[in-house]
Amino acid sequence: MLMRTDPFRELDRLTQQFLGANGTASRQVMMPMDAYRSGNEYVVAFDLPGVSPDSIEIDVERHVLTVKAERALEPGGNAEVQVAERPRGVFSRQLFLGDTLTTDDISADYDAGVLTLRIPIAEQAKPRKIAVTSGEKAEQINP
């Protein structure tokens, strides 16, 4: 099971969304994500438009998954920037993974500005059937 990270992250996100980094109104959210369970895995999708796949780093240490990505300003040459509203710089997000997830087999795919992670559920956490015996059968097995 995925667990939320820092409880103050939402407060920080909302503050940035309404006030922005320079005190003006802003509607940008740095690294929004969706997470859901699909069969025997969790799928986590991060919106990272305009980010080079080479700048994405994914690390797992002690059930803490960290995603870092960088988007740089790319005017090139002698261009004079007139408006720069899109967020740029290094973005980072951490997720605490529960013990029921297998961190050894995480896969990552980056397509059309979306980074998708697939985190398998550990075998011991998967549902399984347990056979039920009646008292008569138990007596026959253990006379």
TrEMBL record:
Family matches, as CDD domains: ACD_sHsps-like
Domain SHSP: start-end pairs: 24-136
Pfam families xref list: HSP20
Signal peptide: none
Alphabetized PROSITE patterns for the sequence: SHSP
Similarity field: Belongs to the small heat shock protein (HSP20) family.
Protein name: HSP20 family protein
